[in-house]
Amino acid sequence: MTKKQVDGKTAAQPARGPHTGLAEGETIEFKQSWSEDAMYDLAGFANHKGGTVHIGVDKLGYSVQGVDISDQAQQGIANKILAQLSLAPSISVIFYDNTPTLAIAVPQCQGGVWLRATYYIRSGSITTGLPREQLARVILRNINETWDTLPSNATLGDIDHEKVKAFIRSAKARANPRLPEAVQEGDDLDVVLANLDLLAENRPRNAAVLLFGKNPQRWFRTARISMVHYRDIDDFDALADVTGTVFEQIEGSLRATQIANPPRVTFGATVGDIVDRTRRSERTPYPELALKEAITNAIVHRDYTVVGSEAQIAMFEDRMVFLNPGGLLPGVNVQSLLRSPHQSVRRNPLVASICFTDYWVERYGTGTTRMMSLCREWGLPAPEFLAENDSFQVTFWRDIFAEDHLRRRGLNERQIRTVLMAKAGHPMTRRFLVAECRVPQRTAARDLDDLVEKGLMEREGKGRNTAYRLKRHSD
Fold first, then answer.
1. Phi, psi (degrees; rounded to nearest 5) at 104
2. Predicted pLDDT of residue 311
3. What's the rounded mean pLDDT across residues 347-371?
């Protein structure tokens, strides 16, 4: 036996044998001796890809002496695994030279296994218990289902038949109808829902409640959109949550964004060589179709298994941010979203399919690039996309260099003129501003420094070569 210093005391360590040639990973775990700790790793293996716990091997992969490989010991281990995990393991004896070890293997279990009311999973060489929302995703994947296809606790009486009829009329009135011929407005509700694949075990699926429920939030409390309008970080209005069906949430959220971001009204339009001063025109700060696309995506593609988290819209003076629970699914990343078309992996395929039928969703795999194109046509920066583990964010930047916006920021007339000239492409220096605005150099310097302080412009170069440019949104 070798010795090891532990807490000031000398502890005996099993003598090392040969190296096993193995390394710990997502399917291999080492234990010097059998203990209940091995049960957690076996549960994690069963809930992942399957794997083997090697008893009699240290963390560096060396075999150690002193492992009990008797039939009685093996049977005792097998009985404990069967009792706690309901699994029959495969146990074998492996010799490294003359040093015996036990290899305890379990297969992947499609239905999943639990240990002491916790669901464990293997990630790399670590076994961890899953948070509730991750557990829900694992279970759905194991049973080859998505959340929206599961049968709900609602009944047919909780579905609004009139909303279903209105949907059918709207879908059938399209120039190129996408609604299946079998779906008829005059059929009984259960027949219509069955033909739309919205029934499971004679109960409405979760998708049916979201799409056509009389009160979807009774069943899914976080199926809502929270909205905040910020004038400043400490000056904001928390607007009423937008609730109702999927379609009502889309329409309600779009109305709220329009009210908080009213259009700019101008008079006068050039017709030939004549300026018609009586002609009125409006221009919204953001393209409405792009906002509708972002709202629809936030509702249709959000993760409804995340407890206590709703979709959010935050409106600021210079931007609008859409945040929905649920990161991107495997196989999709932000870079792929910038291509058209890109792979479409739908978290709620049934909800997406019904929305597609009535043109709330256009083509799969084109939404993000359509938003980008609409913003460019509006003269705005492309929206920014940010994906994290449990959320997805879209940020629209408004034209913070528009004259009406600059005036609200409190800029003086010289500064507004300076920004508009820079926006038009004029090289901006103190010397240029002195000549163009006929002001002293000190005034020009003060105006430019204030624009830098307000985050509208930034300096380039030093000394007499100092120039100024508009600050990009991404900066």
1. -110, 110
2. 94
3. 86
Please give the helix or strand (H or E) that residue 393 lies within, else none.
strand 391-397
Angstrom distance (rounded) from CA 149 to CA 174: 26
Burial of 359 (0-12, 13-18, 19+ CB in 10 A): middle
Residues 374, 416 share a domain? no
Q: Could you tell me if 89 and 29 lie in one domain?
A: yes
Q: How far is 257 from 262, CA to CA, in rounded Å? A: 8
pLDDT digits (tens, 9 = 90+) for 134-164: 666 766 766 678 889 989 999 999 999 999 9
For 466-472, the CB contacts below 8 A with 24+ separation are 466/429, 466/430, 467/427, 467/428, 467/429, 468/422, 468/428, 468/429, 469/422, 469/428, 470/401, 470/419, 470/422, 470/423, 472/381
Note whether residue 136 is domain-resident.
no
Alpha-carbon distance of 89 to 91, in angstroms, equals 6
* pLDDT single digits (tens) 174-219: 988 999 999 999 999 999 999 999 999 889 999 999 999 999 999 9
My answer on whether 257 and 343 are in the same domain is yes
Among 330, 321, 334, 317, smallest CA distance to 455 is for 317
In this structure, the answer to whether residues 74 and 175 fall within a common structural domain is no
Pick from 68, 102, 130: which residue ends a domain? 130
- 100 in a domain, yes or no? yes
Q: Which residue has the tokens 């296809």?
A: 149
Look at the pTM and tell me if it is higher than 0.90. Answer: no
User: Could you tell me the pLDDT band of residue 7, with boundaries at 50, 70 and 90?
Assistant: very low
Whether the CB-CB separation of 398 and 286 falls below 8 Å is answered with yes
Query: Among 51-55, 63-67, 451-455, which is the least confidently predicted range?
Result: 451-455
Domain that holds residue 174: 147-219
